[in-house]
Amino acid sequence: MSAHSSRPAEPYLSTTAAPGSSRAGEAWLPPAAHRVAHARRLALATALGAAALAVLALAGWVSGALVLTSLVAGQATMKPDTAVGLGLLAAGLLATAARRGGRRARITGLICAGAATVIGVLAFLRYLTGVELPADELWRDRAVTVGDWAPAVMAPNVAVAMALTGVALLLLLRRRPGWVRTAQAFALVVMMTGMARLVGLAYQVPELERFGPYTGMALPAALCLLLLGAGTFLARPTEGWTGLLAGSGGTALIGRWLLGTAVIVPPILGWVRLTGQDMGWFDPRLGLGLLVAGDVSAFLIVGLAVLGIAARIEGERARAQHTVRELVWLRTLMDHTPAAIYMKDLAGRFLAVNATFARMVGRAPEQMIGLTAHDLLPRATADRLREHDLRAQSGGRAIQADTVLPLGDGVHEFLTTLVPLADSAGTAYGVCGIATDVTERAAEQRERDRLQRRFADLLEAAPDAMVIVDGHGMITFVNAQTETLFEYSRDELIGAPVEMLLPEEIRDTHRRHRRSYTAHPRMRPMGAGRPLRGRRKDGSAFPVEISLSPLETDSGVLISAAIRDITTRERAEQRLAELAAMVESSQDAVFAQTPNGIVTFWNAAAARLFGHTADEIIGWPWTRLVPPDRLEEAKSLLIRLRAGERIDNVETVRLAKGGRAVEVELTFWPLLDDEGAVTGIVASCRDISARKHQQAALHQLYEQQRHIALTLQRSLMTQPPDLPGLATARRYVPATGGAGVGGDWYDLIALEGGRYGVLIADVMGRGLEAAAVMGHLRSAAHALAKTGMEPERLMAALDDLTCDLPERLVTCCYLVIDPEAGKLTACSAGHPPALLAAPGEPARRLDLPVNTPLGLGQGGYRQTVVGYPRDALLALYTDGLIEIPRVDLDARIDLLAGQLRADGAGLEQQAERLLAALLPDPAAHDDDVTLLLLTLPAAPPR
Q1: DSSP codes, 857-895
Q2: Which of 192, 207, 240 is where one domain is finished?
Q3: Which of 6, 301, 398, 829 has the smallest CB count inside 10 Å?
Q4: What is the domain-level CATH number for residue 653?
Q5: pLDDT for the residue numbered 176
């Protein structure tokens, strides 16, 4: 902020310095707008009248109608040079008096006034010097000669008046403040010159028309000079003597009265005196007495009227002084108030400001008068302030507006009250603004609003229904959970009594309790020890839990109620009680513990199993029941449970009372809260000592049977011999589960004519029975094949044999390879398809007729003959190689075919590759697997 004088600014008054005055302290009430407008219009009218008379005279000279140059026959005529000069003065006056005359009008006025001045001066110089100028030939009146002087052209008094009028107009057009009164004085001289000619005509005094023997002033010229003098005097109605006469104060009124009296009364009384004397009504002495008496009477009457006006002015002055004192007092108060106060006119210019506002913008108060907000503030800020001013003016009533102003020490926020100003007639003339700096208050309010929003957000995000009521029990706030819980909309609840959320039968009781709580508010649960019920919009009631809290606010104490629907909890408690009764009566030991392993529940079965009562074990760590060699196991289980993992069927050992070891099977499951955190652990425990003894006996029996089965299988499933000319690779992978004995087998048989028989089969099931069936069928199939029986007949014979065995099904595939013909004959009884891979081609399935497995007794087996190329590769296998739970069987066969390639690699290498691709983890396989690879022999060379 810039420093300025500590002298308080002068109070704003509706007075300004008198026009043309330079004396300090001289005050003047500016003229009313209508009086100024009348003066301007009158000045323009006089200019037009003078121009009309000048044009009329010129028309008379041009047309020869000389009466137009004198208006009255026998009187002096207006000369052409006079008419031209007066016309130029009329044009200059029009340019001077024009309110909105621009630069072009001003230049035109200067040219016209200057030309007329030159004409007047030259005409007057002619009288003084006697020099004849060339232009005189156009103007000379040769009929008149006076002594040694040149013939008269323009009357000398007209020449002087014309020059004075031109100079006056030049002074007005130059717009210099000190020259206005001089110009108006010249105008008065011109006006009196013209009036003298008119008085001479009225009083029949020819001497007033001319000076000596020179040409007299024409009547039209006198009228023009009177009009031009009056118009020049009125051309600046707000300045100089005219401004004083047009003022709104008492001084101007007195001046107008005195001027009017001086101009009107003496000429009228003088004319009356002369007329009376000419008519013989009285002699000259009596006429003079009457004239003096009339003048005294007229001026006495005017004096008395002026006295009344002066008295009224004195009263107004006293009131004005009182008003000034009030304004000084008000200004002193304004300057010492912390609010910024200012007044603006309708254009937004400052009329008055107090010291506070001046300090804010870094200016002295007197420097701001006449400026606008755009001169002091950034454009955007000033535009907003102007919008506020216009809104107050257009609305005609006080408004409040928030404004932000960038000041020297930062941005400030103001609350501004704008009051439109109007005069007694109701005409608006400005606006008054009172701006209070609310920067700190606004910051505090924003902080309060932020805290309130945060508080509201917290209430809105609360899991419970939140209801806030005032001291009269009317709801002032609810959150979304309240709408959901009670099924009312927010609009329905705000302003309603809180009892609408309660069943009707308890509302009166609640009102009494509410009034008691309001008188002594404190944080506590509502209705401690009593069941509480809420009421939904549909009238249904439900159990609730309510917590009450008082809230201190500026408007008084509010009551906050957190309402929770405990329907689910009551049901859970009821269910828990039922479950507790069931657990307590359970035959299995059930106990609970904290995540840290502290026992919190112990049922009767646990007490019977371990010998500890609930009182003895609750509160103790669970590790009290763990043998020392099992502590690491117990810690590992606890870590997994803390992570939220459920653990089923853990067989371990725990200690009963007295140190007795008990073999148990434990199942643990963690208890989780709504966010998934572990809050407790529940375990069921079962004594498995008797079951362990039974399992040991069964295991011993199983091992005996398994040993017998393996011995039988090894004795029955002998390794087929290698046949000359038939290259093979063979793999058998026994199952890892069950009895360990399966029913898979294969056989290679040398047939007559250089042919080969190849058979692979799978007895469904395991154990001794499957091994026995496999033994019967293997022997029968080998014997039948040696007879040279066709594959379809061999399958029919094996089907009959299988039907005689105990409820067994067998899949089987038998092929007869004829190298001489390059063909093979095959028949399949429900067995997985054989795969054939030719060199350079992908493996494909052999297209064999679909036949039922052996043992169904349906017969009708069919065979097919398939040709094969040289060095083709044949793959036979059992279902253990391709079957995996929940995996498509065809996809597994396609995988096997994709790995089978007749690429010249060894059969053993091919077999290892196939097993690695289809059995990546043989230990996890639960079925026997048999794989047989053959390189189909070609015909021997002849």
Answers
A1: -------EEEE--TT-EEEEE-GGGT--TTS-HHHHHHH
A2: 240
A3: 6
A4: 3.30.450.20
A5: 72
In one-letter notation, the amino acid at residue 815 is: L
Which of 382, 359, 387, 384 shows the shortest CA–CA distance to 371? 382
Contacts of 155 (CB under 8 A, 6+ apart): 76, 82, 210, 214, 215, 216, 217, 218, 221
How close are the terminal C-alpha atoms of the chain, in Å?
A: 126
Residue 910 lies in a domain: yes
- Return the SS3 of 23: coil
Pair 69, 178 in one domain: yes
Distance, CA of 149 to CA of 540 (rounded, Å):
130
Q: Does 561 share its domain with 575?
A: no
Q: Which of 639, 670, 687 is the last residue of a domain?
A: 687
Do residues 197 and 71 lie in contact, with contact meaning Cβ atoms separated by under 8 Å? no
Residue 769 is predicted with a pLDDT of 74
Complete DSSP assignment for 833-863: PPEEE-TTS--EE------PPBTS-------
Tell the residue number behind the tokens 């029986």, with chain if given. 789
Closest CA to 659 of 612, 691, 591: 612
Angle between helices 33-63 and 80-97 (to 10 degrees): 160
Task: Name the DSSP letter for residue 174.
Answer: H
Enumerate residue ranges in the chain where pLDDT < 50.
1-18, 20-27, 134-152, 739, 942
What is the Rg, in whole angstroms, of the alpha carbon atoms belonging to the chain? 66
- Beta-strand ranges (E) seen in 597-726 are 599-602, 647-655, 661-672, 678-687
What is the predicted pLDDT for the residue at 331? Answer: 74
Strand ranges for 364-464 from DSSP E: 399-407, 410-422, 428-437
Both tokens of 317, joined, read 């002055």
Q: Which residues contact 925 (CB under 8 A, 6 or more apart)?
A: 733, 735, 736, 880, 919
What would the two tokens of residue 800 be? 């009959």
Locus of tokens 């299995």: 588
Q: To the nearest 10°, the Cα dihedral for 525, 526, 528, 530?
A: -150
Domain that holds residue 99: 33-240
> What DSSP string runs through 499-560?
GGGS-GGGHHHHHHHHHHHHHS---EETTTTS-EEEE-TTS-EEEEEEEEEEEEETTEEEEE
Tell me the angle at which helices 284-336 and 250-278 cross, rounded to the nearest 10 degrees: 170
874/844 Cα distance (integer angstroms):
10
pLDDT of residue 874: 95
DSSP percent split of the chain into helix, strand, coil, nearest 5: 50, 20, 30
**Span 920-934, pLDDT tens digits:** 887 777 788 999 999
Q: CA separation (Å) from 806 to 605, 762, 764, 802?
A: 48, 16, 12, 8
Judge if 215 and 276 occupy the same domain.
no
**Angstrom distance (rounded) from CA 192 to CA 225:** 9
pLDDT at 307: 63
Note whether 841 and 871 are within 8 A (CB).
no
Amino acid in the structure at residue 628: P
876 φ/ψ sector (left φ>0, alpha ψ -120 to 50, else beta): beta
On whether residue 547 sits in a domain, the answer given is: yes
